[in-house]
Description:
This protein is an alpha/beta fold. It has a single domain (16-260), classed as NADP-dependent oxidoreductase domain (TIM Barrel, Alpha-Beta Barrel). It contains ten helices and ten strands. The chain has helices spanning 32-43, 58-67, 88-102, 120-132, 146-155, 174-182, 202-211, 215-225, 237-243, 253-260; strands at residues 9-11, 17-19, 23-24, 48-50, 76-81, 107-112, 136-142, 162-166, 186-190, 229-230. A hairpin with a 5-residue loop joins strand 1 (9-11) and strand 2. Helix 1 packs across helix 2 (58-67) and helix 3 (88-102) crosses helix 4 (120-132). The two termini are 35 Å apart. The model has no long low-confidence stretch (mean pLDDT 98). GO terms for molecular function: oxidoreductase activity, acting on the CH-OH group of donors, NAD or NADP as acceptor. The record marks 80 as: Lowers pKa of active site Tyr.
Amino acid sequence: MNITDIKGTVKLANGVQMPYFGLGVWRTNEGQEVIDAVKYALDAGYRHIDTAAIYGNEEGVGTAIADHATDRKDVFITTKVWNADQGYDTTIKAFETSLEKLKTDYLDLYLIHWPVAGKYKETWRALETLYAEGRVKAIGVSNFLQHQLEDLMQSAKVVPMVDQLEFHPRLQQPALQQFAKQHNIQFEAWSPLMQGQIFDIPELKELAQKYGVSVAQLVLRWDLQKGIVTIPKSIQQKRIEDNANVFGFNIAAEDIALIDALDKGTRVGPDPANFNF
């Protein structure tokens, strides 16, 4: 990944350019709250917005993008099919609903939100259809572990281009990172700031002071230097701007190693190997 600025991209397996820095809108309320957050992000130079059907805020995201001076073609929009909609026909229908809410006629990236056993292969087949029809530029998965990826890839015509996973200094899954790299699957971090828990890690505080940056900026820069797409969530204008201010410094290799050493396999979200929703 060649890190340049907030509009920089990483090339996916099919050649699509995906901005490596974006805004996540999980737990951002539909209506003015999400509209404002997306507007702040676009004003600050973000060109990647990540939502999901289950977040219940696709309409607000669509409104903010439609009303902004930035061209739709210059904004990378990701959304995800929810578990209850998985299956071939229901996924196609869910995709149509998401498009309508987002006020667009195509998606940049469509993901299977969780690996629902017995359903994700048919769901993937629907994503392959949408991709073949040119209605989505790239397709991928979210929360798929290695065994689930391997199972999906046995019957898939198209290898997932992205796997979006919980990723932060306390949960790094290096073997899964390596597997993704081997198969040209772009690793993407959700909850990169560990829902705020990174601010309690003393080693990160010390390193942030060394570089004269915030703990959040340090961790987001670490993501990028590890070649991982990152989508921090915030609704506050200043924080959205500050989060993106990660292009004026470079973390030295020994300090990357120090952050790598903080891995404890600790999750703040559900375990993809054992969930029931």
